[in-house]
Amino acid sequence: MVTDISIYNKILSRILKEQELILGSLAWQIAEKITGMQIRNKESFDVVIMGDPKSVINNYVYRCERIFGSFARDASKQAVEYILADMRPDDIPERLQ
Q: What is the structure's pLDDT at 20?
């Protein structure tokens, strides 16, 4: 069974929330440059993935990691570990494994 897109939207929203705590407004500046991500509402962290969900999430985490190092990646993983626990390993974006 393939993971529903709404789960990936929830993962991305949660990661954005965590990255905003670390990077501040830079987290949103990075998000705005990610192809396949639509920001609906920053205040409620409402985002929608319009492309390949694993690719969009991997790209966002990678770009945060380039700025803030492995801490950004680790924070992203910790922010969504409760969601990832219920997913098949093949459905988890590589940068969150």
A: 95
